[in-house]
Protein backbone atom coordinates (compact mmCIF):
# COMPACT_ATOMS: atom_id res chain seq x y z
CA UNK A 1 0.00 0.00 0.00
CA UNK A 2 1.41 3.35 -1.02
CA UNK A 3 0.89 5.91 1.73
CA UNK A 4 1.28 9.68 1.38
CA UNK A 5 1.86 11.69 4.56
CA UNK A 6 1.19 15.44 4.88
CA UNK A 7 2.00 17.52 7.93
CA UNK A 8 3.84 20.80 8.44
CA UNK A 9 6.03 19.29 11.16
CA UNK A 10 9.14 17.44 9.92
CA UNK A 11 9.25 15.27 13.05
CA UNK A 12 5.69 14.05 12.43
CA UNK A 13 6.50 13.26 8.79
CA UNK A 14 9.62 11.36 9.80
CA UNK A 15 7.94 9.55 12.68
CA UNK A 16 4.92 8.40 10.69
CA UNK A 17 7.23 7.32 7.88
CA UNK A 18 9.45 5.29 10.19
CA UNK A 19 6.54 3.63 11.98
CA UNK A 20 4.63 2.66 8.84
CA UNK A 21 7.79 1.53 7.03
CA UNK A 22 8.32 -1.10 9.72
CA UNK A 23 5.41 -2.98 8.17
CA UNK A 24 5.96 -4.75 4.88
CA UNK A 25 2.50 -3.86 3.61
CA UNK A 26 3.13 -0.10 3.76
CA UNK A 27 5.36 1.89 1.45
CA UNK A 28 5.75 5.63 1.94
CA UNK A 29 4.97 7.12 -1.48
CA UNK A 30 6.15 10.50 -0.27
CA UNK A 31 5.69 13.28 2.22
CA UNK A 32 4.49 16.86 1.93
CA UNK A 33 4.86 19.89 4.17
CA UNK A 34 2.53 22.15 2.20
CA UNK A 35 -0.25 21.99 -0.35
CA UNK A 36 2.08 22.55 -3.30
CA UNK A 37 4.16 19.53 -2.31
CA UNK A 38 1.01 17.52 -1.59
CA UNK A 39 -0.50 18.30 -4.99
CA UNK A 40 2.76 17.37 -6.74
CA UNK A 41 2.93 14.13 -4.78
CA UNK A 42 -0.67 13.09 -5.40
CA UNK A 43 -0.55 13.99 -9.09
CA UNK A 44 2.63 11.98 -9.77
CA UNK A 45 2.47 8.99 -7.43
CA UNK A 46 -0.10 6.24 -7.03
CA UNK A 47 -1.25 6.67 -3.43
CA UNK A 48 -3.63 4.26 -1.73
CA UNK A 49 -4.05 6.28 1.48
CA UNK A 50 -3.34 9.84 2.64
CA UNK A 51 -2.43 10.50 6.28
CA UNK A 52 -2.91 14.20 6.99
CA UNK A 53 -3.50 16.64 9.82
CA UNK A 54 -6.22 18.91 8.49
CA UNK A 55 -5.44 21.53 11.13
CA UNK A 56 -1.80 21.86 10.15
CA UNK A 57 -1.21 24.95 8.09
CA UNK A 58 0.07 23.14 5.04
CA UNK A 59 -1.57 25.88 2.99
CA UNK A 60 -2.23 29.45 4.10
CA UNK A 61 -5.50 29.55 2.14
CA UNK A 62 -6.78 26.01 2.61
CA UNK A 63 -7.04 24.38 5.99
CA UNK A 64 -9.47 22.33 7.95
CA UNK A 65 -12.57 21.03 6.25
CA UNK A 66 -11.93 23.31 3.24
CA UNK A 67 -8.66 21.52 2.56
CA UNK A 68 -10.33 18.12 2.89
CA UNK A 69 -13.15 19.16 0.55
CA UNK A 70 -10.63 20.31 -2.06
CA UNK A 71 -8.66 17.06 -1.78
CA UNK A 72 -11.83 14.98 -2.05
CA UNK A 73 -12.97 16.93 -5.11
CA UNK A 74 -9.64 16.35 -6.88
CA UNK A 75 -8.97 12.80 -5.61
CA UNK A 76 -12.39 11.28 -4.81
CA UNK A 77 -11.12 7.69 -4.56
CA UNK A 78 -8.32 8.50 -2.09
CA UNK A 79 -9.14 7.44 1.47
CA UNK A 80 -7.92 9.88 4.09
CA UNK A 81 -6.80 9.17 7.64
CA UNK A 82 -6.85 12.30 9.79
CA UNK A 83 -3.94 12.26 12.21
CA UNK A 84 -4.72 15.23 14.37
CA UNK A 85 -4.93 16.97 17.72
CA UNK A 86 -8.45 18.20 16.95
CA UNK A 87 -10.80 16.81 19.59
CA UNK A 88 -13.98 18.33 18.15
CA UNK A 89 -16.76 15.80 18.92
CA UNK A 90 -18.43 16.73 15.61
CA UNK A 91 -15.31 16.15 13.51
CA UNK A 92 -16.49 12.76 12.29
CA UNK A 93 -19.77 14.12 10.98
CA UNK A 94 -18.02 17.12 9.39
CA UNK A 95 -15.54 14.98 7.48
CA UNK A 96 -17.17 11.63 6.73
CA UNK A 97 -18.35 12.67 3.25
CA UNK A 98 -14.93 14.05 2.34
CA UNK A 99 -13.03 10.79 1.97
CA UNK A 100 -12.07 10.60 5.64
CA UNK A 101 -12.04 6.97 6.71
CA UNK A 102 -10.64 7.32 10.22
CA UNK A 103 -9.69 9.97 12.72
CA UNK A 104 -6.68 9.17 14.86
CA UNK A 105 -5.59 11.46 17.65
CA UNK A 106 -1.88 12.20 17.82
CA UNK A 107 -2.14 11.25 21.50
CA UNK A 108 -3.46 7.75 20.64
CA UNK A 109 -1.27 4.67 20.77
CA UNK A 110 0.66 4.23 17.52
CA UNK A 111 -1.14 0.95 16.87
CA UNK A 112 -4.32 2.94 16.27
CA UNK A 113 -2.68 4.79 13.35
CA UNK A 114 -1.34 1.55 11.88
CA UNK A 115 -4.80 -0.03 12.13
CA UNK A 116 -6.50 3.00 10.56
CA UNK A 117 -4.11 3.13 7.60
CA UNK A 118 -4.47 -0.60 7.02
CA UNK A 119 -8.26 -0.43 7.19
CA UNK A 120 -8.39 2.53 4.79
CA UNK A 121 -6.14 0.80 2.27
CA UNK A 122 -8.12 -2.44 2.43
CA UNK A 123 -11.38 -0.58 1.93
CA UNK A 124 -10.25 1.08 -1.27
CA UNK A 125 -8.77 -2.12 -2.65
CA UNK A 126 -11.98 -4.01 -1.93
CA UNK A 127 -14.23 -1.37 -3.43
CA UNK A 128 -12.25 0.12 -6.31
CA UNK A 129 -15.15 2.44 -7.07
CA UNK A 130 -14.71 6.12 -6.07
CA UNK A 131 -18.36 6.58 -5.14
CA UNK A 132 -18.10 3.76 -2.61
CA UNK A 133 -15.24 5.19 -0.57
CA UNK A 134 -16.81 5.55 2.84
CA UNK A 135 -15.08 3.72 5.63
CA UNK A 136 -15.61 5.87 8.73
CA UNK A 137 -15.51 3.78 11.88
UniProtKB/TrEMBL annotation:
GO biological process, one term: phosphorelay signal transduction system
Keyword list, A-Z: Phosphoprotein
The organism's place on the tree of life at top rank: Bacteria
A Pfam family annotated for this UniProt entry: Response_reg
Chain positions found as 4-aspartylphosphate: 53
PROSITE patterns the UniProt entry points to: RESPONSE_REGULATORY
Domain Response regulatory residue range list: 2-121
Official protein name in the record: Response regulator transcription factor
